[in-house]
Amino acid sequence: MLRLRWLIVPVFVAVDLASTLLTNQGAPWTALGFGAGLLLLNAAYSAFLSRRIPLAWLLRMARFESALVVSVPVLVVLLHRDPRNALRYGVLVGVVGAAAVLPRTIEVAVVGIWAIASLVIADVVAMGFDPALLSHDTVARWAMESGIIATVGIIAAYLHGSRELSAERLRITSEAADRARSEWEATVDLLHEAVVVSDLGGAVIRCNRAFAKLLGARPHELAGRLLPQILEGHPPRWYEGKTDGIIEVEDTVFDSLFEITTTRTGDRLVRVIRDVGELRRLYTRLVQADKLAAVGVLASSVAHEINNPTAFVTSNLEELGRYLGAYESGLAELAEASLAAGAAERASLVLQRPEMVFARREAASAVTESLQGMERIRQVVSTLRSAARRDQAGEPASAVSLGEVVDTVVRTASQDLRAAAAKVDLAEGIEVLGHRGELVDVVLNLVVNAIQARDEVRPNRIEVLLRREGSQAVIQVADTGKGIAPQHLKRLFEPFFTTKPAGQGTGLGLSLARNIVLAHGGSIDVESEVDVGTTFTVRLPLLEADAELAQVETLRPRGQRAHP
Which of 440, 483, 500, 561 has the smallest number of CB atoms closer than 10 Å to its CB? Predict the structure, then answer.
């Protein structure tokens, strides 16, 4: 608006100068004075705006200026006594200026009315307030000028109202856009995936907290920097993609696998980065766990199928042993009968044949050894079924002999334990309330971990102990293997955490073992030192009778024994 007035005021002054000079009405000092005054007001207005004067003062000045500009016809008539002076139409500048500056439409309407009144007052002053000089031409001029001013005022008011409506819509749209932007920025910041927006040259425009956290910085610290500089030392595939697509980057610095989705929008590149390394590792472990579960089901099925023929082979061997006893009795009776019949020499020759001597000497021991072998098969089958039966949820707890549980595990891993020169010391008569299959699973996990902890440099000695401590049963599995690093101890019982190489562990064994022990009302502790060894200690509450007996034994003076 200030620029418009800097242009319009000189134009009106020039028009008045031309009118004055062409009609020989005298010196044009009036137009020059009014023009200079309006330009001075304009300059003052500009100075106020540059100094950030309060809005209320600026509005007051705008109202005063609009009223002053509209009063130009009255001032011109007072000086020139000429109602036809071109400066009278300066009222239009006042009306348009008011529409552009004043905040309310009603104020623009007041300025328009005052403009019409100014023209009428100017002509009345020029007539000397003499009604006799009022002519039809004057009234017609008033009507024409009022119509022009009213039309300009209506247009100005309409434009003013449109401006207000547009400003309100712009304000609402701007607030909605700011709110939407804030919401999106907050949403992107809360994403676990790293998001970075860059130009085609690789300069970061913005990024979320996940990306900044990945690099150990803050989002505003990365803005404006180049991705090759930020990711120096990392694979260049991080920032090489310039088109839409998905790539995977194996980053040895972060020790993980990343999936980068790149989307190009104009001259911007949006990259969404997901750390899929841990997800892939978890997937591999779950697949391995599923395979182990399938092997467990298969082992249980195979054990069941083996158990049936084992049962009737054992039964037949036992019958064969009885048959051998009957056979020996029959031979003894035949020998006595042949002696009585005088055929002792012939009977002796038959019994002394090599095949008969060998058969009589080896048959009984062969049957006995076969029965021992079948008993071994039965034990292996029973152990397989116990180890494969992991889920006993919903079944009632019962008395479980921990000695039998540990012995089952020791027989299962007997070959590896013999190689480790294992020491097994099991106290007798220790029972707890629980589920046998689950307790077998706990001890088996601990023993397998001890076996796998062997170090190639030095021997791994394993010790499995079962004893009483007050009202608790204690199972202790110790090894002299590699040990566990201190930073890994606090995560040892987390699901899927493992320090074993890929394919050798799922990270579920100790987590499941701990859950089982806690469900039985016990506790599991671990002590470990690198290159020294590891000791796992499981404590379970004894059966109520065992607990009472242990308490009595503790209170009884030394040297005294309980009488049966």
Answer: 561
